[in-house]
Write a sequence for this structure.
């Protein structure tokens, strides 16, 4: 699809220049000219009174569909350890690869990381592309984009999946630009939806009020970042066999424009919400930040961790790293306690996959009760101490 000026119809009125939100039309010799910044939004076509602009189909479908095969997973590692999202991507990638009757592959970059290949094979990767170089020791956008971008153009994967982590969110768009393809960010569902091998990529839209399914039918690879904690992780099997393919890594002066001077780890206590088996979450019903002390005590007794709703985080009662929901972590614990949380759709998006949901709320009509397996109607400051007392008694 491309936007074109029909020169013989153009009267040089400049209406299209003013209408273009991307400054992508200039005038040359009293005729409009489309510039590379054009996003094909079509605004100019609507305002032109002389039928001098049209959208043509000529650029569509220029890729050779048969040339692209394999599902690739970007295996993010830090300090030689795979991120938990990688096993989830391999779990999801396996389903897609089986449906497409193709191979599941992982691509991993770093320095002295050869051990990771067998781990990735154990999680189901049939091929592991490995880029080992000291310049890849710590993640840098330029370095990773160059190496993986070149690998994509050499091996032509059909699908490339990345975790929607900080690194995945940075790297994904750069790779998509390099490969001249599209990317759907923050997907929560992936399916092969048709015979054209198109990946149907679903993600929340409009504040989580509806789910949008996005396709990339005119280019390959199809790229998506996937929300951590949503997809089921692949099961590790040390018996699996696979092939390791080293990637050529060559950097010229100027290829990498940034230097890592120092890595400063957050001194905040890290909460591992996505791995937790029991989560006790608090919302604005706590009434103040002090309420989280009670939840901490409760969580400790249960061997769990503390989560929070956006209202509690926005009130400054607890750090953002505890946030659960559409803009925070997605969790799937065995038991999720929602204490003083109303159950807004954006919160449910992050926790409704929990095995058991226990809601404590003084409003019997709170929407959280619609997803709760057990509902306790009443004041959390009365109910939680009662439960803790019972727990103490049962341990005596
Ligand atoms: P409220 O909705 O105010 O509910 C408080 C509840 O506590 C009430 O049901 C009340 O009956 C109960 N209560 C009060 N006192 C007590 C008591 N003493 N004992 C027991 N119960 C009591 N929210 C998230 O959580 N996570 C997200 O990731 C997120 N992302 C968002 C993204 C967008 C784009 C938007 C627009 C919103 C997002 N939100 C998110 C906000 C979300 O819409 C809600 O506003 C938020 O979840 C409400 O938090 P809450 O349930 O703690 O507060
Ligand atoms: Fe500008 Fe949109 Fe017209 Fe392209 S299609 S020139 S972006 S108005």
């Amino acid at each position: 699809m491309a936007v074109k000026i029909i020169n013989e119809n153009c009267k040089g009125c400049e209406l299209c220049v003013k209408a273009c939100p991307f400054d992508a039309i200039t005038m040359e010799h009293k005729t409009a000219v489309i510039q590379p910044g054009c996003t094909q939004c079509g605004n100019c076509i609507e305002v032109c009174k002389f039928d001098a602009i049209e959208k043509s189909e000529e650029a569509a479908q220029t890729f050779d569909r048969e040339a692209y095969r394999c599902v690739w997973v970007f295996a993010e590692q830090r300090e030689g350890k795979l991120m938990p999202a990688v096993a989830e991507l391999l779990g999801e990638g396996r389903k897609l690869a089986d449906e497409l009757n193709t191979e599941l592959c992982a691509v991993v970059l770093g320095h002295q990381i050869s051990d990771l290949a067998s781990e990735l094979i154990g999680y189901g990767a049939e091929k592991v592309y490995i880029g080992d170089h000291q310049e890849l020791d710590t993640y840098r956008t330029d370095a990773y984009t160059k190496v993986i971008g070149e690998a994509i153009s050499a091996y032509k994967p059909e699908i490339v999946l990345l975790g929607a982590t900080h690194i995945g969110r940075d790297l994904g768009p750069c790779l998509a630009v390099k490969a001249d393809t599209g990317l759907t960010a923050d997907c929560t569902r992936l399916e092969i939806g048709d015979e054209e091998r198109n990946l149907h990529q679903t993600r929340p839209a409009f504040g989580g009020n509806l789910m949008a399914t996005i396709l990339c039918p005119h280019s390959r690879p199809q790229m998506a970042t996937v929300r951590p904690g949503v997809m089921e992780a692949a099961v590790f099997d040390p018996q699996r066999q696979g092939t390791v393919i080293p990637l050529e890594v060559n950097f010229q002066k100027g290829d990498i424009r940034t230097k890592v001077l120092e890595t400063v780890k957050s001194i905040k206590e890290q909460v591992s919400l996505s791995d937790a088996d029991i989560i006790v979450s608090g919302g604005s019903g706590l009434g103040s930040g002090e309420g989280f002390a009670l939840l901490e005590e409760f969580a400790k007794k249960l061997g769990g961790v503390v989560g929070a709703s956006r209202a509690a985080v926005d009130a400054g009662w607890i750090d953002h790293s505890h946030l659960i929901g559409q803009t925070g972590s997605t969790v799937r614990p065995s038991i999720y306690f929602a204490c003083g949380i109303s159950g807004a759709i954006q919160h449910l998006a992050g926790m409704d996959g929990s095995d058991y949901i226990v809601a404590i709320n003084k409003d019997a009509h709170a929407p959280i009760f619609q997803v709760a397996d057990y509902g306790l109607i009443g004041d959390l400051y009365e109910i939680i101490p009662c439960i803790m007392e019972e727990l103490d008694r049962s341990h005596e």
The longest helix spans residues 84-100.
